[in-house]
Amino acid sequence: MQVRYYVKGTKLEAEAWYAAIEPVFEDEGAPIAITEIDEANAVFETAAYLDVPEGGDRAGDFARAAGVPVERVGREAIENKDWMAEVLAGLKPVRAGRFLVHGAHDRDAVAEGDIAIEIEAGMAFGTGHHGTTAGCLTLIEEEVSRRLPRSTLDLGTGSAVLAIGLAKLGGMAVLATDIDPVAVEVARQNAAANGVGTLVEVVEAVGFASARVEERAPYDLIVANVLAGPLKEMAPDFARHLAPQGRVILSGILDSQHDGVVEAFVAEGLKHEKTLPIGEWVTLLLRG
Ligand code: SAH
After folding, report:
1. Consecutive 10-residue averages of pLDDT for the chain (288 residues)
2. Residues in Cβ contact with 237 at an 8 Å cutoff, skipping those fewer than 6 apart
3. What is the CATH number of the domain that holds 154?
4. Quick one: how far is CA 238 from the chain centroid?
5. Closest C-alpha to ligand 1, atom 11
6. What is the pTM of this model?
7. Which residues contact 136 (CB under 8 A, 6 or more apart)?
8. Whose CA is nearest to atom 7 of ligand 1?
9. Among 137, 179, 231, 250, residue to substitute to test ligand 1 (most atoms within 8 Å of Cβ)
10. Mind telling me which GO cellular component terms the entry cites (predicted)?
11. Cα–Cα dist 59/70, whole Å
């Protein structure tokens, strides 16, 4: 059973709780979220979605991690682990590391030091509310801070959320692709609206099959949040378009598909460096 534990307070409190609980529940991959639940009164809430054994309760764990009395902790059982739909319904800002993905109506939520990505829920996937997007953003921040890539590909860009994050964080050019012409259009608009229209080039392409994708190869960093099946099929293409020591961040992979995807990429000579679980999804970091 999954339970949403939450505590309400001011924005500052909510951010402090978030910072406190994140490292505690990181290893189990629990999704954590800050949401503004009452705009008029500036009430914020920090929540963690924790796996709880049948008949058990983890309010104490949550209270200890946040440093609040257990009486302040609210709880709500999530049916069918469908926390995503829950979060999506609100479309409140989502934090992943330094990134804050938010809609236009939540510009106020952007704090100093945040790298804001403004996305309207629309025709293209990627509002930041999905664990796979959050997983990619988290690994992007870690990896780009470690070493700035020169050439970067965001394959399956959807709303361009990851490409915008990359361009804003690293200030480098990003090639973004999608199989879906509507997503390509939305991605272009979002990149421009986020002030990185000149850094993010968007092209329509199926996988790596595009003259533009070839021209801009090899890539120091390829990010692809697609699905396990196509990722496995494309493993040889990833290897072929990756620069020596280049890095690959993959998501859209269910926990149960983890080993199969890793095997397909290891078979192409890549090294598996890290797995970041969020809910039932995993995000992988591999290296050439
Ligand atoms: N990158 C965004 C969107 C991920 S959704 C995020 O992380 O939130 C996956 C996107 O990949 C969709 O927009 C879909 O149209 C696109 N896609 C699926 N298969 C693809 C393929 N083979 N080549 C390119 N894009 C693909």
Report:
1. 92 94 87 83 92 90 97 83 44 85 86 91 69 92 94 96 96 96 93 97 97 97 95 97 97 93 98 92 96
2. 207, 208
3. 3.40.50.150
4. 20
5. 156
6. 0.72
7. 162, 223, 225, 249, 251, 283
8. 133
9. 179
10. cytoplasm; ribosome
11. 6
